[in-house]
Amino acid sequence: MSYPDAQTAALALRPDEPVYCFRPDQLAADAEAFRTAFPGRTAYAVKTNPHPLILGGVAGAGIDAFDVASREEFRLAREAAPRADLFYMHPVKPASSIRAGLAEYGIRHMAVDHENEVAKILREARAAGIDASELTLFVRLATKGHAVYELSRKFGAAPGHAVELLQRVARLGAQAGLCFHVGSQVLQPDAYEQALKTAQWIRSRAGVPLAALDIGGGYPARYGRDPKHDAFPVPSPGELLPSILRAVDLAGFSDIPLIAEPGRAIVARSLSVIVRVLLRKGQRLYINDGIWASLSDSWTGKLTLPVQLIAEPDRLRPKGDPDRIVPFRIMGATCDSVDILSRPFWLPETVKTGDWIEVGHIGAYSLSLRTDFNGLYPDTFITVAAPFSA
Ligand SMILES: *Cc1c(COP(=O)(O)O)cnc(C)c1O
What we know:
The protein is of the alpha/beta class. It has 11 helices and 19 strands.
């Protein structure tokens, strides 16, 4: 079903369960904005939102490469974009998925951060009759920096180890690449600049030809602003990428192909969710969604989500000024006591039981992290034309 905007949809459907509002034009515009700002190859990170509506929109916007991490992601990406290149950038892979990737999906680009992973991949390639020279193995660097979500505690080789890995990959006859992923919702370019300096040092020490540099994901999306917490305005990809590209240049990488793996920056704004206030208790709102459904990313990242009240018509309002915006504590739908959002929703003080709230910019890490805990699994989608506005 299609609606001009979320308000019209909420008042027509009067939904008691969450309803996702998909905005194809927003998705196309944000994908296009990234591609315009980034001169290399854009590989959309499928885990950010693997829903066919989203993958179809990403492919429709001309993105022809996908960062994938499992057989199911290979399948979904291939279904949305039959001719796209798949980059298997999970540093630790089951042999059976490597085999399927090589044989069924034509995957030739993979990440590694340990010699045994290199051996595992080359063994599978040999068994499939694929020459090592057809493969590009990207050595993943450990990075440090300020991201809202930090990932280097889990993956990545330290600089000295990365030098050895590059030399090993080259010696075994595969193409060598370098990659890093500095985290997610990275608000300043310094994390990338630091990683690029490390990459430069590694390249100079390794002394092997590099086939490509993959600078990963992490580009931020705009959310709401909490007057108490959020000091920085969030840069758009168009604002952040020029500084990163300058750092790429300075580190001497403008001579080889570049790849980026954006997720959040492309899809965040393409989806909102209409939730309902099941009960208001003072300054607390109990809603029909929460951290076990669409909103866990905001909980982990302590993000203030932008919201719009859709008031139930013809009802008496609690006393107050509808123009006064105040913080409400948001209690999630499940019986779990951790299911309380880490940041409030800022709403008119007259909000009441039965009202709807449109929660904007939830396209990243929402659908992919939904659970059916307590039997509550939102899965209703509509298409909405107007952009979200808080
Ligand atoms: C999750 C992930 C991405 C996407 O990150 P965003 O912050 O959504 O841009 C890209 N690359 C790798 C390796 C990832 O793990």
